From TrEMBL:
PROSITE patterns: RESPONSE_REGULATORY. The modification 4-aspartylphosphate is found at D58. It comes from the Bacteria. This is Response regulatory domain-containing protein. Residues 9-127 form the Response regulatory domain. Keywords: Phosphoprotein. It comes from Rosistilla ulvae. CDD domains: REC (cd00156). One of its GO terms (biological process) is phosphorelay signal transduction system. Pfam families: Response_reg.
């Protein structure tokens, strides 16, 4: 179990309570103070109140999905907010997820079901790369489930539509 030198603050956004709780448990073991949010809107409010050192967000959530949340973070004029390292988590199996997250400015990607040591590895790698010229998305995909055949799934297509349409 990794141990960080000082307490860091993390916002965890996931509509599945069990996922939020397990991530909080793992990160508390690493000296993180965690704020939990059930969707992207709740996470955005928490980020605006007190910008965290890290954001971990699920991609597929009601109200405001993780992709929209990532887009909001990167578009914010405050350097304290737009530079927050962001780790995305997903159970979607789609060939375009990595490219889309990288395009939107994500820093890490974890595949569900979550694994404690893969989570630690991604969190530590993302935090170590924060503030450097490292621009490559850090991906943990122990089961080879994120990469697909390059086709965009209907679920992922639904999540992408409001992000890249001219109406948003």
């Amino acid at each position: 179990m990794p141990n960080l030198e000082q307490t860091k603050r993390c916002v965890i956004a996931d509509d599945v309570r069990a996922s939020r709780e397990i991530l909080r448990s793992w990160l508390c073991d690493c000296q993180f103070e965690c704020v939990l949010a059930a969707d992207g809107d709740e996470a955005w409010e928490a980020i605006q109140r007190e910008p965290p050192d890290l954001l971990i967000t699920d991609i597929e959530m009601p109200n405001c999905c993780g992709l929209k949340l990532l887009q909001r973070v990167r578009a914010d004029p405050s350097p304290q907010i737009h530079s927050i390292p962001v780790v995305m988590i997903t159970s979607l199996h789609d060939g375009q997820i990595e490219q889309t997250i990288e395009r939107l400015g994500g820093n890490g990607l974890l595949a569900k079901p979550l694994d404690q040591y893969s989570t630690y590895a991604i969190v530590l790698a993302v935090l170590a790369a924060a503030g450097t010229d490292q621009e490559k998305l850090i991906v943990s995909d122990p089961n080879g489930k994120i990469s697909g055949d390059g086709l965009v799934s209907p679920t992922f297509r639904r999540l992408l539509k409001p992000l890249f349409s001219s109406d948003s």
